[in-house]
Amino acid sequence: METQAYEEELQQLNTIMNEIDRQLTKLEGVPIYTGSDVTEQVLEGIRETNRRNLRIAINEPYFGRMDFQEEGKESVPLYIGKIGVSDIATEDPMVIDWRAPVASMFYSFTGGDDLAYYDSPEGIIEGLIYLKRNIVIRKKNLQRVVDTYIKGSQNESVTDDFLLYRLSENKDNRLKDIVSTIQSEQNDIIRSSKNTPLIIQGVAGSGKTTVALHRLAYLIYQYRETIRAEKMIIFAPNNMFLNYISNVLPELGVGGIQQTTFTDWALAILDYEVAAKDSSENLDKWFSTGVDRPKINENTPGKWKGSIHFKDYIDRCIERYEASAVPDRDFEPWDKIKIEKETLHQWFSYEYKHYPLAKRRERIVARIKKWIDGELKNIEETNIKKDKKKKATQYLTSYMKQWPKHTALSFYKSLFVLTDKSTLADSIPAEIMKTTAMNCKKKEVDLEDLAPLVYIHNRLYGIEAQYKYHHVIIDEAQDFSPFQIGLLKQMAQGNSFTILGDLSQAIHEYQGIKSWDEFLEIFNHDQVKYYELSRSYRSTMEIIHFANEIISKAEIPVSLANPVFRSGEKVKMIQVEDTNRINLIIKTIEQLQHNKMDTIAIIGRTEKECALLHDALTEAGMSATFIHSKQRKYEGGISVVPVYLAKGLEFDAVLLMDVDEQHYEATNQDAKLLYVGCTRALHELWVLYSGRKSPLIEDIDVQLFTSMI
Ligand SMILES: Nc1ncnc2c1ncn2[C@@H]1O[C@H](COP(=O)(O)OP(=O)(O)OP(=O)(O)O)[C@@H](O)[C@H]1O
């Protein structure tokens, strides 16, 4: 039977490949248009997209087949691929784009005799599925045919076998697409409608980043009439992470989406009026160990400035500025000739109300100048006219001095200067007042200042068209502040958001959130869709069970990860003396490489310790990449990385260093850090410590690891 299926698919592959080849050859034969005719340019754009798509399709034209019988019709085999391909002569679809409505059944159907259905533009279409088949094609060669559902057969649902086959593969240095194995709960998120903001709490390895990228590809396809790639934006925690995920969208045939960090994005909007302080200093501080650990409370700058309370405070300050902006006097450049203050107020508060504050000021200056010109026209004597003009200009300058022109920075700075007893600034903690005023003076600010600065900029100057988005994706959103979300909410049209994160990995406690309610409130609870993904696809069961024991020690209001049934090596726990550490690491890595582990991370606790470890390993002849906070590229191979920078990444094997009582104390924060470290591993996890082991791993069930000396 299997051979028969294979032969059948081989034949089909030939037919489809020939068609793709024919179309591509034809398109590649058309000379590229470089002229200035707009219609021709548009046509060239379409040809270029088609060329690009067909080049993707020619290597792996499809990955699945589903035999579907729509009610009242014949059963037809539908081939599903990354890119849709039609027979050029008959226009019949040969391969269906995975994002097409009918293809949704390939992901949502998990067996059974019930009618399957999908939501088409014409309404719900129902029918029966007879076959669901996974087909692996690599570089034009048919490699594997696995039936995951055959109607009437005993062994009805073996979907997980194929998923496991994909999960057991090793990873290189880039995140991959998952079109062939999207799971039903992921499919629901990917295909959610554009204008419902989504908040997704997903355990480590549940596919949040991957799902977010597939969702973008879906939205571009589904809303192609109204949505543009350049108007969609992804926020990720750092540039190395952006580099790590950079292959997925091109693999899905999607280009042009903005991908950035909040810092880079904010600095550009502020036109680089300020610089961002070196983040590594901050990370060193917040992730230090022992007596250096700073305490975190509501007055911690990141928390305080990231709160909606601070946003409201800024609103009040802006209102105050607005109320007192127009000088409380007539504009009277010459005796008895004047614009009355009531008129100026009328312009400001009514006629120009729809303009942002700075623009209103500009408009009024322009109107006053026009009024002066008009008045001067009535004067005939040249000398008097000249004299009056001079007087009016001087008067205007002194008048406008009473109406300060603000930039985002100057306004922000003014919030941190205590000018009089009645000032609103009374409520700002003294330490924040002092340091922020100092930073503003140096034009060098912290991450937590950027959202308020952009917010003020928007209030003063309005939001430019290029910063109004069709869709916003925020990955690792647990590290965002409510203020950042509140700000972005103003800039995303129709509240089109996908916000993803994991509270169990909320290691940036000094700025992030404790509960998703903090964001839900911003969107007015009932308008948002909240999802929880608890199935974890990355790590083996052994690793997930071990990691779950650690995170259970922290009080976090989310459910534990539930691994797919993929079994591997037990977690290894090793006590090692400092003198033997380097030796042991090198031997372990040799063993792991022998076991075909391609990407291996040695995860340390702080950046400084990792730098020292990396030096020692280099000296001992090992070649590894040291990942530090300024790293922009993830190279793969062997990496030495501080645990907080490993978040978001994954490796075939992980060596967690220094899991002792000094480095990982019995605190929520350290439990989360250790959890992040453990869940980076796909296949093997080695936990090393010297002296006393961390209390976080002290009483872990002995069945869950192997102790080695
Ligand atoms: N449906 C799936 N089929 C195959 N692989 C999947 C699937 N879903 C997720 N994966 C794989 O699981 C791994 C984790 O995915 P991803 O990094 O997107 O998860 P995450 O939730 O963002 O993780 P974390 O929060 O731990 O960084 C990746 O290797 C991804 O390819």
TrEMBL record:
Q: Which PROSITE patterns match?
A: UVRD_HELICASE_ATP_BIND (PS51198)
Gene Ontology CC annotations of this record? cytosol
State whether keyword Hydrolase applies: yes
Q: Does the keyword Nucleotide-binding apply?
A: yes
Name a GO molecular-function annotation: 3'-5' DNA helicase activity
The chemistry this enzyme catalyses reads: Couples ATP hydrolysis with the unwinding of duplex DNA by translocating in the 3'-5' direction; ATP + H2O = ADP + phosphate + H(+)
What is the name listed in the Swiss-Prot or TrEMBL entry for this protein?
A: DNA 3'-5' helicase
The residues covered by the UvrD-like helicase ATP-binding domain are 181-540
Gene Ontology terms describing biological process: recombinational repair
Residue ranges annotated as coiled coil are 3-30
Annotated residues for binding of ATP: 202-209
Q: Which SUPFAM superfamilies match?
A: P-loop containing nucleoside triphosphate hydrolases
